[in-house]
Predict the structure.
Amino acid sequence: MKRRAFLAGFLAAPWLVRQAFGDASVGGAPRVTATEPTLVLVVPRDPLRRWERGAAFGELLNHGRDRDLAPLGTIDVMCAPGARFGVDGDPLMLYVERGRIWQIDGVLPRYPDRDGERDPTEDTISRERIDFLAALIREVVPRPKLPIAEAAARARARWVNHAPPGSRWGHAGSCGAWFEGEERADNVDCGMGHVPAASARFLDFLVKAS
C-alpha cells in the first residue's frame, strides 16, 4: 500500500477511537457502532458542503465500478464528523485501523454553476468525481482478498441497498427531495433547479440540530 506516499497518518489514542465508535449517532438515531477497519465519510460542518459531499459519495456508491467499490466490501463504512475522532477540519474521509487514523483529503471536481439546466460536461465530471474518490480510497484501504466482483457485490449489498450508519438515502430533483423509508410528500414545490443525474440519489447526513 502507498499510504505514506499519499497522505499523512497519525496515531490515535485507543480510547478516542473507542469513544468515537461507541458514541451516540448523529441526529439522535440508535447508537452507531463499528469494528475496525472502518472508512469514515466525514460530515462537514458547513450545510452547503454537506450537500456537495453527500452527492459525491452517492455518485461513488451508486455508480462506481466493481474496482471502485471492491475496497468497501470487507470493511465498515460510516458517516460522522471528524471531530468525533479528534480530527481538526473536515477532510473528505478517515480510515481507522488498529487504533490508527489516516486522513484522506483532496479537492473534489465541481459541477459548473448553472441554474435549472443541464451542462453537457456533467457525465464527464461525474466520472471524474467517482474516479477521484475511488483513487483516494485505494491508496489507503487494503486491497480485499476476495475477487473484485465478489467484494464489490458485498459493498453494494451493505452500503448501496442501505445507507451507511449516520446517513440516509435521499432523492433530489427539480421538485424537491424525498428520503427512502419515509412517506413521500405530494405537495412539493417544483423549481429548485437542475440536479445532475449521477447525484439524484445522494447521502443525507443525519446531524444534530444546532
The beta strands are 9-11, 38-42, 76-80, 93-97, 100-104, 167-173, 176-179, 201-205. The first helix runs from residue 3 to 6.
